[in-house]
Amino acid sequence: MGAHYDHWGWGGKGSGSKKKDTLAIHNGADDNASGVSALLSILEELHHAKTAPKRSIIFISFSAEEEGLLGSKYFVNHLPVDKNAVKVMINMDMVGRLNDKKELYMGGAGTFPDGVELMKKLGENSGLNSIVFAGDVGGSDHVTFYKNNISVIGLHTGGHPQYHTPEDDTALINSEGAILVSKYIYNALTAIANYEQPLTFIKQN
């Protein structure tokens, strides 16, 4: 389970900022402090759980996602366990701006058996409108794992005009929505960690 913690710093020329003419701190409250916050919250919840999941879970936050997924590429090439032991990677990138329709998007759910059905079922009574894609893997750190034949799910709450600008700040974060999203992802994580059937990789278009 992962999220990236880097952003564009002061921005400016040569950066990936959408406002290169503005020299200002890019706090990245949604992209991707929201993902790291969810990661830490889920880790804390799992730590206090009375029953340990059947499978081991690695929690990691990546740097250099904005520079081309460099952190996740390094990690996959220097895994602390055998690569064949890594079955599913769940990634959270921009999960802090849940909209009025409560839409939580996820790609890659079809990369492991019955993944689409699982993610849709978890959406029932979650307070969320779970929009599940079998493929549509996306462009964040989980793509590195997918390219190495590891199943993935990439979750986000959608784009917005403040993306990659200094305006992506805490005042725009939907805290209550982020709690709903974190609970959903926690349930997904524990369900997958306790999967009865083998977690095999399924390539998607």
The number of distinct β-strands equals 6
Distance between the termini: 23 Å
User: Main sheet, how many strands, which sense, barrel?
Assistant: 4 strands, mixed
Assembly state (oligomeric): single chain
What low-confidence regions span 5 or more consecutive residues with pLDDT below 50? none
Number of helices: 5
Fraction of residues in β-strands: 5-15%
Q: What sequence of helices (H) and strands (E) makes up the elements?
A: EHEHEEHEHEH
- In which order are the strands of the major sheet placed? 3-6-4-5
How would you sum up the global shape?
globular
Structural class: alpha/beta
What proportion of the residues is helical, as a percent range? Answer: 25-40%
Using the CA coordinates, give the radius of gyration.
17 Å
Mean pLDDT equals 97
Polypeptide structure, described:
With 205 residues, this protein is an alpha/beta fold. It has helices at 29-47, 70-77, 115-123, 142-146, 175-193, and strands at residues 2-4, 60-62, 88-92, 103-107, 129-132, 151-156. The model has no long low-confidence stretch (mean pLDDT 97).
Topology, pairings included?
Blueprint lengths: L1 E3 L24 H19 L12 E3 L7 H8 L10 E5 L10 E5 L7 H9 L5 E4 L9 H5 L4 E6 L18 H19 L12
Please supply descriptive tags for the structure shown above.
205 residues, alpha/beta, four-stranded mixed sheet, two-stranded parallel ribbon, 6 strands
